[in-house]
Design goal:
There is one protein chain. It is built from 1 helix and 27 strands. With 361 residues, it is mainly β. It has a single domain, classed as AttH-like fold (Beta Barrel). Strands 4, 5, 6, 7, 8, 9, 10, 11, 12, 13, 14, 15 and 16 form a 13-stranded antiparallel beta sheet that branches. Strands 1, 17, 18, 19, 20, 23, 24, 25, 26 and 27 form a 10-stranded mixed beta sheet that branches. The chain has a two-stranded antiparallel ribbon with strand order 2-3. Keywords: Signal. It holds the Pfam family Lipocalin_9. It comes from Streptomyces aurantiacus.
């Protein structure tokens, strides 16, 4: 089943998918003069809908676009147990060659105690490698290799280390239903492995390696975003008890807003549905002492097509901002409760926020 609700975004996604399929654009937003990779331009989901990304080959680095904010990003968040505690992990490699360069980020949240620490470092071009033929990333202290089935990540930072294996356990989620969607006027490519079994070790400041077991959500995205200084977005991921995985985007500027979700069901079929703008129901604001940004810490998420009414709340601590000077982004552990398809549900998730959020009057 492929259902796209008739919103402005849904229509744009559907039209873009048709145009791309008709013109057989190579995956990865390749430049017109770039030789396509030795693989099909499209692959198919289990419901027969062509996709514009290849979950394995597109783990490799992509051809850089001309835009200042063109980015190549791979990112995973984890909900694991370690030493009897609930732990949230984040590892992010983000390459913006025409902008701030190359960043490696790592964060750990002890949801049980509220302890939190992050690390974000810029990497010089000569010290950074991301293969164009598959997942093989290296930078000082980081090694990330693998494929769409299994990945290995080792990371050392001044205050700890992580060494984990991720194994895919569920169908791939293709944002927009086919892996390509308009992001406030720009074409972006994105897909996710929503459920990756995660095992390994985590070592923190005490030097003691703790065994970790749990689940990760891995996101792969590339393409440009607008230079509009008023840009804000909220991203959330949800793994539901019935096996559905839901990714929510709420993007807005002073002149535009798009709020929608992609759902992948256990059989691999997709739905793209409208979401009531989550920014409208955000509350319990927290102000970062580093960037000065305000962020909400609770949201009410309503997805009418899925009969879903959820409350999402930050867990562990409100202070989970990753900041470089005045530029901050919230990357935070959260939990949700409510109803989905009319049934009571609860679970753990992550929330990402970009921008300075002010309470709505």
């Amino acid at each position: 089943m492929q259902r796209i609700i008739g919103t402005k975004l849904g229509a744009a996604v559907a039209l873009l998918a048709v145009l791309l399929a008709l013109t057989i654009v190579p995956t990865g937003a390749q430049a017109a003069d770039e030789a396509p990779r030795a693989r099909p331009a499209t692959t198919a989901t289990s419901n027969g809908v062509p996709t514009m990304v290849d979950p394995n080959a597109d783990l490799g680095a992509h051809t850089v676009g001309p835009e200042t904010r063109w980015a190549d990003s791979i990112y995973f968040t984890s909900e694991v147990k370690a030493g009897g505690h609930d732990i949230g992990l984040l590892v992010h490699v983000n390459k913006v060659p025409n902008g701030f360069g190359r960043l490696v980020s790592f964060a750990v949240t002890d949801v049980t105690t509220g302890w939190y620490k992050n690390y974000m470092v810029g990497v010089d071009e000569e010290d950074f490698h991301w293969s164009t033929t598959g997942l093989d990333i290296s930078a000082p202290g980081l090694k990330w290799t693998g494929n769409a089935e299994k990945q290995s990540v080792s990371l050392d930072v001044p205050w700890g280390s992580l060494d984990v294996t991720l194994k895919a356990q569920s169908p791939v989620l293709y944002y927009g239903g086919n892996g390509v969607f308009p992001l406030l006027g720009a074409t972006n490519y994105q897909y996710a492995f929503p459920n990756m079994r995660t095992t390994g070790t985590l070592t923190l400041e005490d030097g003691k390696a703790q065994r970790v077991t749990g689940q990760s959500w891995l996101d792969r995205q590339w393409g440009p975003t607008t230079d509009d200084p008023s840009l804000q977005w909220t991203w959330m991921n949800l793994n539901l008890p019935n096996g559905d995985a839901v990714a929510i985007w709420d993007t807005l500027t002073d002149t535009d807003e798009e709020s929608w979700a992609t759902v992948v069901h256990r059989d691999g079929s997709h739905e793209v549905v409208a979401v009531e703008p989550v920014a409208n129901s955000a509350d319990r604001f927290w102000t970062s002492p580093v960037s000065g940004n305000k962020y909400p810490t609770r949201w009410r998420v309503n997805i009418p097509a899925l009969n879903a009414h959820l409350t999402v709340t930050l867990t562990g601590t409100n202070d989970q901002e990753m900041a470089r000077g005045e530029n901050g982004r919230l990357e935070a552990t959260a939990a949700f409760t409510g109803t989905y398809e009319g049934k009571k549900v609860s679970g753990k998730n992550y929330v990402e926020m970009i921008g300075d959020w002010k309470p709505k009057s």
